[in-house]
Every structure is written in C-alpha cells, then in structure tokens.
Amino acid sequence: MLLGARFLLGDVRRLGGLSLVLIAIELALALTFMTYLGRAFKLKPKLVSLLAVGSSICGVSAIIAAQGAIDADEEDSSYAIAAILLLGAISLFLFPLVGHALHLSDRAYGLWAGLAVDNTAEATAAGALYSDAAGKIAVLAKTCRNATIGFIVLGYAIYWRGKARLLKCRIRAHFYGASFPSLYWAFC
Predict the structure, then answer these.
(1) Which residues are within 8 A (CB) of 130 and not within 5 positions of it... i.e. 6 or more apart?
(2) What is the mean pLDDT of residues 44-69?
(3) Burial 90-114 (b: 16+ CB within 10 A, else e)
(4) Which of 28, 54, 49 is nearest to 38 (CA)?
(5) Residue 39 · residue 49 · CB < 8 Å
(6) CA separation for the pair 141, 111 (Å, rounded)
(7) Which pLDDT belongs to residue 179?
C-alpha cells in the first residue's frame, strides 16, 4: 500500500504546483456552479447536492458515496447518475475534436480532460483518445480530484445533518407554540 502511495505522490509532484492549484479551483467552481445551476432550475436540494458532488469529483462514485451520507432518495441518485453519464458520453466525442481543433499539447489536453470530464472512466477514455501521453495526464489529474471525495462528501454530510437538526428544532418549536396559548409563552 505504501509503495502505491509513493508512486502516486511522485506522479502528483510531477504534475506540478500550477496543476494542483487548477484542480482546487475546478473543485470550488464546479461545486458552486452546479449548486447555483440546480437552484436556478428549481431542482430538489439533495439532487442539487448530488449533481454538484458528481460533477466536481468523480462522477458516479461520488454520487453513490454522497447518497448515503446525505440520505438522498434513490430517484435523485438515479437522475444525478444519468446526467453525469450523459455528459461523459458527450465528452468522449466532443473533447478530442475540440482539443485537436485548438492544437492543444498533450499535457494541456490531458489536464483539461482530467479537470473537465466528470466520470473517471470517460476522463480516462477522452484522454487516451487524444494520445497516450494526454491519457496519462488526464488519469493523474482525475486521480487528484478523486482523492478529495472523502473531504467533500464529509462536508456535505455535515451540512445536511445540520440542516436536519435545524428543521427538527423548528418543528418542535412550532409544535410547542401551537400546543400552548401564546399568553402562556408571554409569561415564561
């Protein structure tokens, strides 16, 4: 296990500081953009969270991890998974065409594919369709994104647990307020 970690850390170091900064920026922007987009389309809040997590980290794996952590419906998870897979399928065809049209270097294209394609399998394939070297960079960038799954899912779990507690307190306060006359509360 430590041998694998040594190779991964060596590869991440080779990816470079700027690339790691771009990965952090991508995570923040993807989470924010998907949250605002979901709210603009008036999607259910937990579906928005699943879409944000799936599009920012590693697609289906992140959605499945987040589903249990935020106690989301199967229906919301199914919609989120379908959306991520559809975007990934489109990326397989679109990304290599755009990369060649823009004459991107293998490194630039691989980093772009690793940052922009949601699902790990599609990011790997989109990178490899461009070139072998681009495929390796795409996998490495995607692996760095995937490494954040625990932190992001934990953050969403804490957020949703706090929201559930707040709702429970409001319901309890409403119940007590409706059960006792308001004059009683004035003297408490």
Answers:
(1) 95, 96, 99, 100, 106, 109, 110, 113
(2) 93
(3) ebbeebbeebeeeebebeebbbbbb
(4) 49
(5) no
(6) 6
(7) 43
